[in-house]
Amino acid sequence: MSRIVGIDLGTTNSLVAIMTPAGPAVIEGPDHSPMVPSVVHFGADMALVGKAARKYQTEDPANTVYSVKRLMGKSLEDASPEQATLPYKLGGGNVVKITAGGREWTPPEVSAFILRELKMRAEAALKEEVTQAVITVPAYFNDAQRQATKDAGRIAGLDVLRLVNEPTAASLAYGLDRRQEATIAVYDFGGGTFDISILHLSNGIFEVKSTAGDTHLGGDDIDRLIATLIFGEVEEEHRVRLQDAPEGLETVRLAAEEAKVALSQAEALIIEIPLKPSVTWTRRLTRAELEDLARPIVERTLEPCRRALADAGLDVFQVDEVVMVGGSTRMPLVRNMVADLFQRTPHTELNPDEVVAVGAAVQADILSGGSQDVLLLDVTPLSLGIETMGGAVEKIIHRNSTIPTSAAQQFTTGVDNQTAVDLHVLQGERELAADCRSLGRFQLRGIPPLPAGVPLVMVNFMLDANGILQVYAEEKRTGQKAGVVVHPSYGLTEGEVDRMVEESFEYAEEDIRARILVDTRVEAQATMHHAQKQLRQWSQLLTESETDRIEEAIDALQKIIHRDDFREIREKAEILNEVTRPFAERILDATIREALAGKTLEEAEHSKVAQAQR
Questions:
Q1: Which of 195, 191, 121 is nearest to 164 (CA)?
Q2: CA distances from 529 to 234, 338, 387, 435, 535 (A)
Q3: 103, 94, 97, 100: which is closest to 82 by C-alpha?
Q4: 63 burial level (CB within 10 Å; 0-12, 13-18, 19+)
Q5: C-alpha to C-alpha distance for 432 and 426, rounded to whole angstroms
Q6: What pLDDT does residue 481 have?
Q7: Cβ–Cβ contacts within 10 Å for residue 218, how many?
């Protein structure tokens, strides 16, 4: 059986790790470093990956791709804010495309080059073919981003057995699974993404209680602030706009990144930027200045931490351990602000760049049967459901549900003789479909033409351990089925996950009122439709005055049904129910008599319709 490796596919650097008799370990390359820079240079006849590609970030930036993780699972519209800071060109539509080396590449294709490099590194160390892997992803990656990651693995020749959330992997790397019971906060601040997860460990079961974060927040944002400072001062002092040339853009970006890293250890440094062969711009930058720049970015990471605690129903004093993950957590400012928030010293013993890959190797060992005493349970970050009549959302799998999971709910038709149902799959926390994210649509055909409300349509949602969603619907009377694996070709826009969750609280009262209005209106329409149908078929059972009263009640409801006052709609619907109650009783008596006479209900209805037509 092929060895299963653990891979951390990172925004800035990527690593591969394996389980050894001595424990999990990262695999080093020929340069004795375990890290492969997540950079790919596309030349005229070949692609270079990692350190070999990094020098081309300044020599040929237009054909050198980095930070591709930020583009995974996104459309061009989603990714367009990135273009201002990237030297390579973005294009495409529903799938963002990267132009480099004379052709277009999708982000999964670019990521596949990095994964192949890690695969070859593992094969050289193990001296055997590697075909299976566990790959880590940010806990807040949506389904499109997760699917894009799986696609990258498949392109690279890897069977991705599991996508595991990076915070969960980190907790395994620290060996916290050996505790009997604990509540653990994993703060993961990497190059391009931020996650916070609250995990609960009990008797070997690792369960993510809540998760929050930002798929577009990381150390790169701090680099940009330093770069902006440099651009501004160079332009002011030398009238040179380095940001207008790809080479200048990359030179400053790399200098900013190096300054950030160095100031995690040093109190000050000198930045040097060559402007002309004989002119170099220099500037002394202190850690205090850097921290003033970075503080708003770090503060942005603390709000998701507070939200994750609230979602888990905990306060900071109920958290037993805090784990720091990601290269950006080397900054003293980050460690201090996180320690202040959680009121305890966080774990920083392990290399923050390696900890996720090490945890992925532990997960790979679990899947291969090497460890039997640990169970990992992740959660879905947003609710999943379908659109119902009137544009409401019926949530089927709720936010923070443990995955893998499945759920089903029964629905019916809203129109007589309806033979097909359109199903619209949605993701989000709002009550109306217009306020949630569309994941996909499919149609269930072959429903028998029956009165509204009679067909039974069971809708099943299945969310696998990788966070990939499958939805199918079945009409129970006929067994007719249809379904979809939700593989959206675009991702959430920047901050959309945070916005969805925040708006679900901000607009909670408004959403509830809107949902009540929609449900009341749908019920009233069904009552009105039923009354109209019965009038057409059984009018001979009524006196003229009774018919007038029912028609007046229908007219009164019809006039106000599109208003926004659900109480008024409900009141008119109740009046209609009241005036039709004796009518319904007479219809029931008549159908019983018909049945006793040997006719079915359907034959009785046809008979009454024929009489009415005569």
A1: 195
A2: 73, 59, 21, 29, 10
A3: 97
A4: buried
A5: 10
A6: 83
A7: 28
Per residue in 600-609, pLDDT (tens digit) is 445 544 554 4
Residue found by looking up tokens 């190059």 in the block: 191
Among the listed residues 166, 311, 365, 431, the single catalytic one is 166
Residues 534 and 155: their CA atoms lie apart, in Å, by: 60
User: How many Å apart are CA 64 and CA 54, to the nearest integer?
Assistant: 8
> What span, in angstroms and rounded, lies between the C-alpha atoms of 376 and 318?
21
Closest to 520 (Cα-Cα) out of 580, 555, 568: 568
Selected catalytic residue, list 60, 69, 431, 605 = 69
**Among 214, 251, 220, 193, residue whose Cα is nearest residue 54:** 251
Does 221 participate in catalysis according to the annotation?
no
- The tokens describing 493, both together, are 């826009």
Structure tokens at 45: 């006849």
Cβ contact 149:164 at 8 Å: no
Q: How far apart are CA 442 and CA 483, in angstroms?
A: 7
In angstroms, the CA 270 to CA 259 distance is: 8
| The token pair that represents 247 in the structure block | 């080479």
Q: Which of 207, 200, 164 lies closest to 375, judged by CA? A: 207
DSSP conformation class of 3? P
Average pLDDT of the segment spanning 554-566: 90
Secondary structure of 74-102 in the HEC alphabet? CCHHHHHHHHHHCCCEEEECCCEEEEECC
Check if 166 is active-site: yes
Residue from 8, 220, 431, 435 carrying the catalytic annotation:
8
Catalytic annotation, pick one of 78, 117, 151, 188: 188
Residue among 598, 556, 492, 498 at smallest CA distance from 71:
492
Give residue 180's identity as a one-letter amino acid code: Q
Contacts with 456 (C-beta within 8 Å, 6 or more apart), sequence order:
410, 412, 475, 476, 477
Decide: 222 and 260 in contact? Cβ < 8 Å: yes
Write the pLDDT tens digit of every residue in 206-253.
677 888 888 678 898 999 999 999 999 999 999 989 888 878 888 898
For residue 447, give the DSSP letter. -
Q: Please state, in angstroms and rounded to a whole number, the distance separating the CA atoms of residues 585 and 238.
A: 91
Which pair of structure tokens corresponds to residue 279?
Answer: 């002119």
Backbone angles phi, psi at 136, to 5 degrees: -90, 150
Concerning whether 78 is annotated as a catalytic residue, the answer is no
DSSP state of 226: H
Q: Tell which phi-psi region holds residue 598, choosing left (phi > 0), alpha (psi between -120 and 50) or beta.
A: left
Using CA atoms, how far apart are residues 466 and 453, in angstroms rounded to an integer? 36
Structure tokens at 534: 């019965």
Tokens 């009489």 sit on residue: 611
Distance between CA atoms of residues 463 and 459, nearest Å = 13
- Element spanning 250, H or E: helix 246-262
Note if 608 is an active site residue: no
Count of other CB atoms within 10 angstroms of residue 607: 13
Q: How far is CA 153 from CA 14, 163, 170, 347, 598, in A?
A: 13, 11, 21, 31, 66
What pTM was estimated for this model as a whole?
0.60
